[in-house]
Write a structure and sequence with these properties.
Chain lengths: 199, 199
């Protein structure tokens, strides 16, 4: 089979699962969804995860708003997901690229987030240099927490954390290497964070 | 910065988070951990995730046992994680490569698992062909569920699902392209699965 090169689509996708560690998990998820304006992204939920697709800044905006609204319940919330762009096997549909640029969710409420991320620049021989550069970017942004096997720890206020993630997701790809994957795991209102004992 | 090529380490790692959707999440996690024999893997937990490292078959064995023991509570359990091998930036330590080959966890109990996975063969120009081939392997194993943006649905009994994941993780890498990443998300005892309504 010949390698496939294209992946020039501007569609950003985020496939994620959000998990409230609570008997009320269904209500918490439904409430967070109802309080988030998702009109600028295409969205589909199945029994394992949810995917949102659209313009990059709308995808990050909706992801952040969903986490923020769920966090306001004060329950322990976890989120794991994968941001993706430029996959040669991706389809052109389900994209919502025609919407306006204005962000739909603008709640400025603060929320401490502890998270971990990993970048996978696909088909890029220089990918390790890209990864090391983005870790340095996290340190420069003041959101770097710790190094660890297979990931880097990123923490701080939710708005700073998501700002870094979106910038890193932009900087870690090029026209020559447009297929980029970024995994993110977050822990919010964790018992481990009580009393300022942030990891 | 020059690209770095090595990644010949046989250490397999799995960084994951397991989330019981229950007020008793701490007790469920601690019980699953106590019932799983983790003596063959190096393990570390922080406020966001847990990582296990060692020989491939022990890493998959421990991961499966943790999920199986948590599932026995009948609570809704979610797991998201990343299997990784051959990262040029990986360190040689924390590996437990000297242990015996005999598997430590052999509970044959059945458990339906719905999951999704994605393969990321790093620095491999032919990576899309590898991915398509592994989707065909899932169909041949009878565990393929559905295609979707950014992932493939894999379901069935937990033992068949993990058997496929371990085989795919072996087949999707080569000596020439040893750095492989595989993301997996699982949903167990989901309200969506009640009454045989498996997605």
């Amino acid at each position: 089979m010949e390698p496939i090169f294209c992946g020039t689509s501007p569609i950003v996708g985020f496939r994620f699962s959000m998990h409230p560690m609570s008997d009320n998990f269904i209500r918490i998820l439904k409430t967070a969804l109802a309080e988030t304006d998702t009109s600028n992204v295409w969205m589909q939920t199945d029994d394992v995860s949810t995917v949102i697709r659209g313009k990059q800044h709308h995808v990050f905006n909706v992801a952040k708003a969903l986490v923020l609204h769920a966090a306001k319940t004060k329950e322990h919330i976890a989120l794991s997901g994968t941001f993706s762009i430029g996959c040669p096997g991706d389809s052109a549909g389900d994209n919502y690229l025609e919407v306006e640029d204005e962000l739909a969710n603008t709640d400025p409420a603060s929320q401490y987030v502890s998270s971990q991320f990993a970048l996978y620049p696909m088909n890029n021989p220089d990918y390790m240099a890209v990864i090391y550069r983005e870790v340095e970017r996290a340190k420069a942004h003041g959101v770097w927490n710790d190094s660890m096997h297979y990931a880097s720890g990123i923490h701080g206020d939710i708005h700073e954390v998501f700002k870094f993630y979106e910038e890193s997701f932009t900087q870690a790809r090029t026209d020559e290497h447009p297929h980029l994957v970024m995994t993110v795991s977050m822990s919010i209102n964790s018992p481990s964070h009580i009393g300022g004992q942030h990891a």
